[in-house]
Amino acid sequence: MFQNNLDIIYFIYGSSFVIMGIVVLRQPKEGSTFKLAGILWLLAGFGISHGINEWLEMWAILKGGNKAIDLLQWFCLTTSYAFLFEFGRRTIRVTGQSSQSCRKFLIKYLDWRITLCAGIIVFLFSVLSHDLLKTGSIAARYTLGFPGSILTAYGFIAYYVCEKDMLSKVNVRIPFLLSGVAFLLYAVLSGLIVPEGDFFPANWLNESSFLSVSGIPVSFFRAGVAVGVTIAVMEILNIFNLEAKNKLQYEILALLKAVPDRIILLSPDLTIVWANTSAIEPVSNRLNTPEITQQHCYRLYFDRLSACPDCHTLTCFDSGEVQYNQRTDPRGKIWDIRAVPIKNQEGKTINVIELSCDVTEKITMQKNAITARHLTSLGEISAGVAHEINNPINSIINCAQLIADKSENNLKIHEYSIGIILEAERIASIVRSLLSFARESKSEKIVTDIYTPLNEILSIAGTQMRKEGIALIVDLPDGLPYISANKQQLQQVFLNITSNSRYALNEKYNGKHKDKILKITGKEYRTNETSYLRLQFIDYGTGIPPNILEKVKEPFFSTKPVGKGTGLGLSISHGIINDHNGRLDIESSEGQYACVNIELPAVVKEEKDSSTNGKTRPPVQNGK
């Protein structure tokens, strides 16, 4: 029966190896860390060339052979075994760094030249023989096929042992062992059982003697082994698919961990299944265990004992639709939250990915933009009101002066008139300060004294300080150097600093207190032949904790509660002073005081004299 169907057997035999070769070549292996990836092309070469050899055998059975078919068949057979021998040799070499002395011995002597010598021997036996196909086939099987199959069998098993740490995560132990056993069988069936020859051992152990003993052609068993080898090798190739999948998973996890937004994977009971680094860092000091998993999101992020009343994640589980929400955490940060459902094949939501983006800065900037627009409008209104007040105030002053001049004999009326003039002039001074501060700030700097911009701000802020019970002490000596500055920008700096001091003093003292003081001092000093003007704003309020002292000049960093401050005042002030080639430093002792030091370079005497034309500078008055 088998003899009559040898063509089918050779077709299955050849097809198995050709399929194996094609699959090996088409398997993506780029970037693989497995050493096997670099030598599998040799196994593919064996499979394709040996499969073609078996198809040629089938063709000879069906159509008859000739010299051309014989020569091509011998070439394919010899080439296939050369590929197999080289594959086995290289497999052992890539696994030879282990401590087993046998592999080190094989590496030492299994040089590439041994493959070349074996090929030369086969070629000489073939061309010197009167029967090229038979003698050449026997020589190729003895010299290349048998040792190549043995080396490949040993190489597969040795590779699994050598790379066990990498392969332990992949269930490929059986395929590697099966490949080793299959190639051992193939070594006997194809390398020792050869066509019948007139020399030992081919005249004793050959295909004819095997058929007479078993009654089944050896090609049938070879075909079975070929099928087994193909199945095992195709299973081994799964290591590259799993490696690529794991690599992709690692890359995705690394990408998700690097995302600055908070990403957490939640189960239906709102237990955290996975979280990225951005989600772990803010709550790392509050974790009950080193792992964030198996903890409830509402407890960890919002200090609640149960789910939030309008939990968008629960809504996402119920509806299966993407949900959006915005929530403020206990630390005052505002989060834009999006809940995305993950569904199974039946369409049921099994998990939800919650993506949270910190929008505190964005919302603060929006509020600041609105506030800035309001302040601009208020400045315009203030300027208009100030202009309208100026005329009646001047009339009041003039009328009061007339009354004073004509009532010198009536002391009572004269005293009242002088009082009206003083208070009206005080109103006029405040109006002038408002007009100065409301004017559009220009970028150019002019040579100016420090008294004028500071006086104008204290005229505005001083009244509120007195109302709040803050004692304002200004200690600026006469003769302080001139500076090159933008007056409006300096006024903004002074207003920001005094505003912070007022807040700190009011937080510490509720009402009047003998230590509720804001002190402003100034002096001139020289370093490295450069003259500087130094101003100090000292308040005896709450002070600044040492751990955040360096952060208070960063944009949007504020010690005030949400809604009480933007965190921009000191940052803007720091930028303005830097733009004036000066320095702004802060000293503080928590709970005792805070001192803001401003240093501005003084202008040279010639520039000062030419700009001021010899005018004297008005002194700043103390206000209490």
What is Rg? 46 Å
- Termini separation: 122 Å
Helix proportion range: 55-70%
Q: In one word, what is the shape?
A: rod-shaped
User: What is the overall pLDDT average?
Assistant: 79
Largest sheet, if any?
5 strands, antiparallel
| Largest beta sheet: strand ordering | 2-1-5-4-3
Q: Structural class of the secondary structure composition?
A: alpha+beta
Number-wise, the strands total 12
Stretches where pLDDT is under 50 for at least 5 consecutive residues are: 562-568, 607-621
Q: Count every helix, treating DSSP H or I runs of 4 or more residues as helices.
A: 20
Strand content: 5-15%
Q: How would you briefly describe this protein structure?
A:
By secondary structure, the chain is an alpha+beta fold. It has helices at 6-26, 40-63, 67-94, 101-109, 112-128, 132-162, 164-167, 173-192, 207-214, 218-236, 238-258, 277-280, 297-302, 312-319, 360-406, 411-438, 451-467, 487-508, 569-579, 605-612, and strands at residues 262-266, 272-275, 323-328, 334-343, 349-358, 446-448, 471-475, 483-485, 517-527, 530-539, 583-589, 593-601. A five-stranded antiparallel β-sheet has the order 2-1-5-4-3, sandwiched between helices. A five-stranded mixed β-sheet has the order 7-9-10-12-11. Strands 6-8 form a two-stranded antiparallel ribbon.
